[in-house]
Amino acid sequence: MPAPKSAYSIPTKIGKLDTHIFVVWVDNEAGVLARVVGLFSGRGYNIESLAVAEVDATKNISRITIVTTGTPQVIDQIKLQLKKLVPVHKVADFKREDKKVIFKEMALLKIVAQKKKDRKMS
Amino acid sequence: MSKLYTGAEIVFKCLKDQEVEYIFGYPGGAVLPIYDELKNHSSIKHILVRHEQGAGHAAEGYARSSGKPGVVLVTSGPGATNVVTALTDAYMDSVPLVCISGQVPTHLIGTDAFQECDTTGITRPCTKHNWLVKDIKDLSKVIHEAFKVATTGRPGPVLIDIPKDIQFAKTKYSKFKKEKKLIGKVHNRFSKNEIDQLIDLISKAKKPVIYTGGGVINSGPQASETLKEFVRLIGFPITSTLQGLGAFPGDDNQFIGMLGMHGTYEANNAMHDCDLLINIGARFDDRITGKIDEFSPKSKKVHIDIDPSSINKIIKVDLAIVGDVNEVIKSAIKKINKKQNGLKDSNKQKISKWWEQIQKWRTKDSLGFINSDKEIKPQYAVQRLYELTKNQDTFITTEVGQHQMWAAQHYKFNKPNRWMTSGGLGTMGYGLPAAVGVQIAHPGKLVIDIAGEASVLMTMQEMSTAVQYNLPIKIFILNNQYMGMVRQWQELLHEKNYSESYTEALPDFVKLAEAYGCKGIKADNPDELDDKIKEMINYNGPVIFDCHVDPNENCFPMIPSGKPHNQMILGPNDKEENKITGKGKSLV
Fold this sequence. Notes:
CATH architecture of chain A: 2-Layer Sandwich
Strand order of the largest sheet of chain B: 3-2-4-5-7-6
CATH superfamily of chain A: ACT domain
Largest interface: A-B, 25 and 33 residues
Radius of gyration of chain B: 25 Å
Mean pLDDT of chain B: 93
Low-confidence stretches of chain B: 581-588
Number of strands of chain B: 20
Structural class of chain B: alpha/beta
Largest sheet of chain B: 6 strands, parallel
Oligomer: heterodimer
């Protein structure tokens, strides 16, 4: 296949992707989630999962938790770009493979039982 | 009880507190209360443009040439969407703009009201920050915060969206206290240790080069002075990006020309072969680096920048110093003077061979072209323009394309803030409105837009603004009837299939000038060029100069993308042996 005629350089090899968890403390104001998510989509970063909630009602702070993947260079960029946003107070990131960090995941399952005898399963 | 002010009054109170003198704008339904208030504030002058994009670019020209933030006032809906190009342009080139837009009344937001659009949503990715003011009590705080965000750290555009009911609502206004210390998202915390490392690298280098960018300009005129002192002290060769031109004198012997895609042979080869690369306030843009994998392969790299996210974004560096350019270089000079007095002489010895090599590259005369006595060569036109204007303080703006590169190559800038061009976004139509803004900031100075005929037609309507305010801007059009840069790439990459790059039915620019009520001059012969240029300069009023140039001229030298810095295509003489082949073809 002939290479496309483009005005830009060819992409370099993509390095190893790491999974990171970013925790972002932001002002709880209108549009703040859109700013954070828009930064990810606009710069082509990946979001695997996302959770947002208010954590401090008096200081009006929300906490956004984002799971993402990227090369170490991209992960650095994500962190620095997030820090540039005006409503962002603090950014922390944790590497998924880091043994010193404790991760916990929880799932709630609901099983729909129709007959009486099925209920024994629970 | 203290007096209550309307939102519109508060807007002006804030602008006064921020020492704003000019607003570039266009009225409309959702900003009428602010426009109504304008008559009560004689210290603030409103410049009525003909299109909101023009307002944005004019404010950019104003800001870049004066160092003060540019202020834009537009209405909701189409007013706001029209200014998006200028905001994006300012964002890419780090120009401080404060844009105030009207919005439909708060109770109508989200109802698809007349001239409603999600302005903060649309401008979120092209501003440093934006605000929708939903409570009159927040208004003054937001406006002052907006000025702070726009002007501190790495500057950029911000937008404040004010619904019409907020402009009518009343509240108290408390006097604004200007903060002396810049706080918040400003990064100026480099350490002594980093400066020591920098000086260590400087003293060890045998083949060094300094590469400066728009950050030096943004750091203020003082930074250019400091840079000059620094460069003379260590004796290194210095090259500059498009945006950085003027920070270091263009006619100085230590200056080796612009680098990058259309940079000089000596600058690009120095970048490739150097053993120490000091980036001051630039961002390793892809038009600068060429092929990333082969970018300056043998060098230690230092990056001095105020924006931490610029560090290691594209090129991994060995030493990063996050801080204001002026502050960083000043500390370095201090340290050199204090501790290593011998460095100056020993350095000159160490790098003398390197300078010899650079002189060899210089003899290639990569900006050379074959002149003609029948047709005006565009490079010749820029050279003549430079020679005839260099003795006065001249401000140059450009559009985007071949003419922009020729202007950057052949016009020599000796002072900062004299060169306004759209580098990052590459916005055709930037130069004319930018010239309007520059002339507003510098009445009495010579302001020239070096333009292409295709670009200038995109914002031609702003000629009317220039005439209204009697701004004697000179629009110097290098008219080759083509979108020249597009044509050049089609010639080199697409087998001369000049698809849609030729403009048929161009207007008669002389008549067009007359229609706008300004002067039109046409030149198509090299012999008459000097006299006509003088006529343009001496005319006290706006001029459109239609300079007919060779339509087939290409802009050289050139690094085809996909090739490293040391594989440039030089002028027509060199073409045969260095054709773009194979893989490189896909990359220009």
